[in-house]
Fold this sequence. Notes:
The protein is mainly alpha-helical. It contains 10 helices and no strands. The longest helix has 23 residues, at 121-143. It starts with a helix and ends in a 15-residue tail after the last helix.
Amino acid sequence: MHNIVKFFFEAGQLQRVHRSGWWLIGIKNPETVSDHVYRTCIVAYVLAKLEKVDENKVLKMSLMHDIHETRLNDLHKVGHKYIDFRSAEDLAFKDQIKLLPDNISKEISKLFEENGKDKTKEGVVVRDADLLDNALSAKEYLHMGYKDAQNWLDNIKKALKTESAKKLFEIIVKSNPNEWWYDLKKAER
């Protein structure tokens, strides 16, 4: 049980790991990996429903998709050019889960292996959800005046696989990130 608690504390580290890609365009305090994982899970759940795949599997996969960043931090794509980050992710992840009971580590390991590999519909949905969260963040930063966030949107558009994600993406790029609250705010006398 002590090792499980250690794993929980380690997962909490994601609250302090900031997403480094946004530093490239001058965002000093971007969202954390924990923030990213949370919204990715929400997007993944909805996307799983739209694509009619196993939402429970998708949610579990989404929860763990960046857990390795507790040990590696978040490395933006420019850094990926110089480092075999995929191998480092795999090694860090395997070290992390070996502290967990076998039944838990085996399930998490299988989900991690499946994620983003385009081998299953659920893996594709999780990857698209991850990308859509990045698109939402890029649109928010673009709206705040960070013009180079457009680069994220241009790249994400090319990477999406599911029809639902492609449709959602088109709505994201045309939307105002603040419009969700416009009708909720009322002036009072």
